[in-house]
Amino acid sequence: MFFNPKALLLGATALFFSGLVSAQNGTAQEGSCDGGPWKTPIYTGAEAGTAFCHTKYQDGVVMSGIEVWSAKKNIEAIQFYYSDGSNSGTIGKIDKEKEHMRLDWDPASDGLSQVKMWADKKGESLGRIYLRTKNGQELNLGKEGDTDPVETQVQSGMLLGASGRADGMVNGLSLLFLGSKVDKITLSDVVFDETPEELNKRMQGLQMTILDYADHTNAMQDSNETFTFGKTETRTQSKEYSTTQTHTLGFTHSVEISGKLMGIGMSASNELSYSYANAKTETSSTQTTVSLNYVSATMLKPGQRVFCRATAMFGQYKGDYTSTMNVELEDGTVWKFRADGTMEQIAWSQASSKCQSDPFPADAAVPAPGGSAPPSNSTAPAARRALPFLA
Predict the structure, then answer these.
(1) Which of 32, 45, 266, 379 is 20 to 30 A from 59, alpha carbon to alpha carbon?
(2) Can you tell me the distance from the alpha carbon of 357 to that of 300, in angstroms, rounded to the nearest whole number?
(3) 112: Cβ–Cβ under 8 A, 6 or more apart, which residues?
(4) Residue 76 · residue 93 · CB < 8 Å
């Protein structure tokens, strides 16, 4: 078999090309291909054409698809697809297209397991490309047999970017893979869009609700009665941090969140309010069950009437935050990028009860969790309605 010396040099010996590829003079660039969380990439092809770099790793976005157009003797054009729904645009030029294929995968559950590339016989361009996913899908385009294949080590299998050279064709290509498996993920520098002061000022999501109500009269004519108003009820509290990137990147690890975190807490006066607290958690979601206990005993004379009401404060919040996601790899590399997310929390205060001889005053109806406000002409006692909390 005949081998062109230039093709051999550029293909089989796998020249390292990362230093040649920069964002300053190429096609439309998403980011820099210098110094990312990957091993030194292997370049296959020629040094002709204009340098390009396509990656969004600095935003925590990975690649999820590749589309290739091939002519009779080489790869004409290529396009990459990202996990955020965007794409690189066409690299090269679709002119004498002979074959066309597109390969997509879900980075949350799949990745690339094998990559081979060949330089063309003349040493002018990329001649052929072969890709295989972990789930067994394949892309195989280009001219076979001109040079020996150059196999790229896929490392983790997660494709972060691509660099190379192209003009009227794809002259050469390097694929950039996350250099090692993920060992640990942490969120730091969490900053919420709103402050506790702003939320407390307008009592965002905070309300006093009615747990129970009683209207009781001692029906006995010649003896007193002790009326006991009490119960134990259970409610669920939860707090969850979520980020788009953890799903997109396919992380199955728990995310450690630490630092000055905002949330709803209970004060000494049994009221809920927003505040900061230094906290650390090993999971992005927590859920607990709380018991709301209340009891009141009232001595009633014959014919005496009493009105009782049990209340607890309920808080519900959903707010956005920005943070830094730190992805620690098994090889010691740390991949950092900004991660936007949402925190959702449901909280309850302790319960309290009160009994009195007069009906409770009518309060503006506020929907209780899972319920709805009574209509304006409702004859339901005011004590059965949810109450607005007044600071």
Answers:
(1) 45
(2) 10
(3) 105, 131, 132, 133, 134, 154, 157, 159, 175, 177
(4) yes
Query: Can you list the residues of the chain whose pLDDT is less than 50?
Result: 1-29, 364-368, 370-391
Q: How many CB atoms lie within 10 A of CB 294?
A: 21
62's tokens = 């990975």
The DSSP secondary-structure symbol of 330 reads T
CA distance 383 to 372: 15
- Do 80 and 66 form a contact (C-beta atoms < 8 A)? yes
- Please provide the CATH number assigned to the domain covering 5-179: 2.100.10.30
What CA–CA distance (Å, rounded) separates 337 from 321?
14
Six-digit token string for 85: 């729904």
Global confidence as pTM: 0.73
Structure tokens at 12: 């089989």
Domain ranges for the chain: 5-179, 184-368+379-384
**pLDDT (tens digit per residue) in 376-386:** 333 334 444 33
User: Which of 112, 111, 59, 49 has its CA nearest to residue 86?
Assistant: 59
Angstrom distances, CA of residue 314 to CA of 214, 272, 339, 347: 21, 8, 30, 6
Per-residue pLDDT reduced to its tens digit, 89-103: 999 999 877 899 999
